[in-house]
Amino acid sequence: MKIAVIPGDGIGPEVVGQAIVVLEAVAQKFGHRFEFQEALLGGAALDVKGVPLPDETMEICLKSDAVLLGAVGGPKWDNLPGHLRPEAGLLGIRKGLNLFANLRPAKVFPQLKSNSTLKEEALGEGIDILVVRELTGDIYFGEKGRAKIPGGEKAWDTAVYTTYEVERVAHLAFRIARGRRRKVTSVDKANVLESSRLWREVVSKVGEQYNDVELNLMYVDNAAMQLIKNPHQFDVILTTNMFGDILSDEAAMLTGSLGMLPSASLGEGRLGLYEPVHGSAPDIAGQDKANPIATILSAAMMLRYSFYLEEEAQAVENAVSKVLDQGYRTSDIATPGAKIVGTKEMGSLIAQNM
Ligand code: NAD
Ligand code: IPM
Ligand code: MN
């Protein structure tokens, strides 16, 4: 099993390093062989190659069975033109690998209930939401530009969706819902945006093919509010690229910390890209403070979705749970009386508990 490893910037290399420690433990325990090949992306690529997404990186990814990615971006590269920013490299790789669906599960570990910003009684038995975010369309990839006008400039970004793009991600969301609580909430801004009106029409039509799955349609402003008010009403949230970006960070906080949230980006084939939902966290980079669990859980998603190793994926998730049971916490999920550990120690503990 060939894994392309893209550490990226900021805390990226720190958290990816620990996901690899855990994958090595999986290999040892279950008798697998993972072959890791490193590739450059984002600021790390800019510094060496002058571009955020070098051709070699795409080649390495295309030759691999899965991609494990940390995060990209940072203040050093913030003033570059848009197409040269580290973030453009990330968007390029998602588009280049045709990874149109981004699965972002937001689940509360029972040990972390008190870390949620929700009151314990609002959390109840905990929440278990899956955001299915469309990842290769919308305002991220439509025409954009800047022009001088009298008195200043104008700048624009265009939100575009095609029937086909909405159909394929909608089918995926409904299929996944069948393996869960059979409820899809499609989130858009169809009261204002034409692209959202197409989104809503297509999702409703696709939904007719899944009579056993309940479909709800919700505007994004209301969805942002409902997520805080009553997160239990959600099972699968199917939404556009932009709204999915925002709502998944919001859902993350319900679970206690952005440092806990994994993601899987999938396309038609088996090749997937696995990365934490969080970014490069320049404020804590290089200090051995970052929580590696989001990336370790992303590696578990890789085992499940790209390698079909369900038992191994669960073993990783159980190891995370055991370490939390033992009272170990990185500082973002600290609670009174917890044993505070750094990035490396957290990774080793999880590997040891495999
Ligand atoms: P961020 O997610 O990097 O950080 C937001 C806050 O959460 C910070 O306070 C950070 O310290 C904290 N945090 C994030 N991950 C953590 C972890 N694993 N453990 C503990 N704390 C954690 O978002 P930002 O500050 O808005 O963006 C920083 C840079 O990251 C920007 O350049 C942005 O473009 C980039 N970014 C990249 C990705 C990605 O590569 N997928 C995602 C989001 C942001
Ligand atoms: C994410 C990030 C990216 C996005 C940025 C860095 C391009 O915020 O993965 O959530 O908006 O998709
Ligand atoms: Mn984001």
Mind explaining what this structure looks like?
One of its GO terms (biological process) is L-leucine biosynthetic process. This is 3-isopropylmalate dehydrogenase. GO terms for molecular function: 3-isopropylmalate dehydrogenase activity; magnesium ion binding; NAD binding. Keywords: Amino-acid biosynthesis, Branched-chain amino acid biosynthesis, Cytoplasm, Leucine biosynthesis, Magnesium, Manganese, Metal-binding, NAD, Oxidoreductase. Homodimer. Helix content is 40%, strand content 19%. The model has no long low-confidence stretch (mean pLDDT 96). The strands form three sheets. It has a ten-stranded mixed beta sheet, sandwiched between helices. The chain has a two-stranded antiparallel ribbon with strand order 6-7. The chain is built from twelve helices and 14 strands. The longest helix has 19 residues, at 12-30. The protein folds into two domains: 1-122 and 255-354, Isopropylmalate Dehydrogenase (3-Layer(aba) Sandwich), CATH 3.40.718; 128-253, Isopropylmalate Dehydrogenase (3-Layer(aba) Sandwich), CATH 3.40.718. The protein is of the alpha/beta class. The two termini are 20 Å apart. Helix 6 (163-178) packs across helix 7 (194-207). Nicotinamide-adenine-dinucleotide (NAD) binds at residues 11, 15, 71-74, 87, 90, 258-259, 275, 278-284, 290-291, 294, 332.
Fold blueprint:
Layout: E1 2-8, H1 12-30, E2 35-38, H2 43-49, H3 55-62, E3 66-71, H4 86-96, E4 101-107, H5 120-123, E5 128-134, E6 144-149, E7 152-157, H6 163-178, E8 183-188, H7 194-207, E9 214-219, H8 220-229, E10 236-239, H9 241-254, E11 264-266, E12 272-274, H10 293-305, H11 310-325, E13 328-329, E14 339-340, H12 343-352
Parallel strand pairs: 1-2, 1-3, 3-12, 5-10, 8-9, 8-10, 13-14
Antiparallel strand pairs: 4-5, 4-11, 6-7, 11-12
Helix pairs in contact: 1-10, 1-12, 6-7, 8-9, 10-11, 11-12
